[in-house]
Specification:
The chain has 6 helices and no strands. It has helices at residues 4-16, 23-33, 39-98, 105-116, 121-140, 154-159. It is elongated, with a radius of gyration of 35 Å. It is mostly helical and 160 residues long.
Amino acid sequence: MATKEEWLNARLAYLRGLKSPSELQKLLLLLADKPDRTAEEEKKFNAVIRAERAAVFAAKARMDATNIINNKDRKQKVADKKARDHRLIQLGALFDLAGVGDQDRGALLGALLGMANVKESERWANWKRQGDALLAERERKPRQPSPPVPVTSHLEASSL
């Protein structure tokens, strides 16, 4: 951590680079440049330094609070996107299970629009029974493991 004098020198250099410093910052620069300050001016100088340090601290605290709020919003957006992606993947898997995943997008959308216009609860109940039966059958079947990938060392690969 920088000493008070190092902090002050760095801060004065920063303030000198500002296009429009505040009145308090102008006073700090004026008193800092004055070689022989009176006791009253020294008291003001120290008070202005404390005020400037407090302002810097407050600005950092505001920035930290904003970052915390933005991070929370960002995390929520990521969680929402992840949930949406998961839902879309599940819907895509249903299309594959039904054997229509290779159909034209327009045809699929037309079929879905036709389904959306069906008001008969009996027809929907029948579709649900068929779908639930297929899903239950898939859950009962053990999953087939993926075929093993042949492993070759870099020496074997280089001799090919």
